[in-house]
Each structure stands twice: as C-alpha cells, then as structure tokens.
Design goal:
Distance between the termini: 31 Å
Shape: globular
Strand order of the largest sheet: 2-3-1-4
InterPro entries: Ion_tolerance_CutA (IPR004323), N-reg_PII-like_a/b (IPR011322), N-reg_PII/ATP_PRibTrfase_C (IPR015867)
Radius of gyration: 18 Å
Number of strands: 4
Number of domains: 2
CATH class of the largest domain: Alpha Beta
Structural class: alpha+beta
CATH topology of the largest domain: Alpha-Beta Plaits
GO molecular function: copper ion binding
Strand content: 25-35%
Subunit structure: Homotrimer.
Largest sheet: 4 strands, antiparallel
Organism: Chordeiles acutipennis
Protein name: CUTA protein
Length: 135
C-alpha cells in the first residue's frame, strides 16, 4: 500500500492541482516555460523561429538583437556575437522543442535552456494554451 501510494503521488498531485486550477482559475506554477536558444546570426534565428512556429511548438518567439558572448570551446576562450531567441511554450513541449531545434540548428552543441514560469498574466497563459496544442 505504501509503495503504491508513493508511486501514485505525482499523478494524484497533478490531478488535484489541475482540478484546483479549473475551479479557482488560478495558475499552476511551471505549466509554461521560456526557452533560451542562441543563434549565430539574425537569418538563422529567423529560420529557427519560423520553424518552431510552423510546428506549433511555441506561442511566441522573440528574436533579441546581437549580444557579445565569451565562452570556452574545445579548451580555448572564444568571443562571438549571437542572437537570442526567447521561446514561450508549454512546459510539456520543452523536450520536443529541444529535440527539434537540435535537429535543425547549425551549432554542434546549441544552447537550449528552459526555465519554468512561476507566475504571470493568466490571460497570457491562456493564450499560450490556445496557441500550442497539448501533447
């Protein structure tokens, strides 16, 4: 009984949170995420952003202007300029998003980092849900 309870806890907790959210209209922290993806130049950034949107893996992708980056690559300190994508999506889509971006990104090891969203505008979250289909 104890083992079964421990195994079922995550599922039951998720159901309770979803039910609470549906009844109260409150946001479940972590339901949505922002992914950060770096790109070599603006054209690559636009191509990747469009590809993400075409696959409906995000509700919105912001393309931020050039920034300088310092990093170690193969033991050497490198300096470059990069374009940063901010991708707003469902947390449940992060794995699929990451796999897809890795398959089309020209970098050997592209930066794909995501952070769950703790709080924000409920109407914006509703729009993300309407824009990004469930799994």
């Amino acid at each position: 009984v104890v083992t079964l309870s421990l195994l079922m806890y995550p599922v039951l907790r998720s159901l309770v949170l979803q039910l609470h959210s549906a009844i109260t209209g409150s946001y479940i922290s972590g339901t949505h995420s922002i992914a950060f993806i770096n790109c070599l130049n603006e054209q690559i950034a636009k191509d990747i952003a469009r590809a993400i949107m075409d696959k409906k893996l995000a509700a919105c992708v912001n393309i931020l202007p050039k920034s300088s980056a310092l990093y170690f690559w193969k033991g050497e300190l490198e300096e470059s300029t990069e374009i940063l994508l901010l991708v707003k999506t469902r947390t449940s889509k992060i794995g699929e998003l990451s796999n897809y971006v890795r398959s089309i990104h020209p970098f050997e090891i592209p930066e794909i980092i995501s952070l769950p969203i703790d709080q924000g505008n409920p109407l914006y979250f509703k729009w993300i849900e309407e824009s990004v289909p469930r799994d």
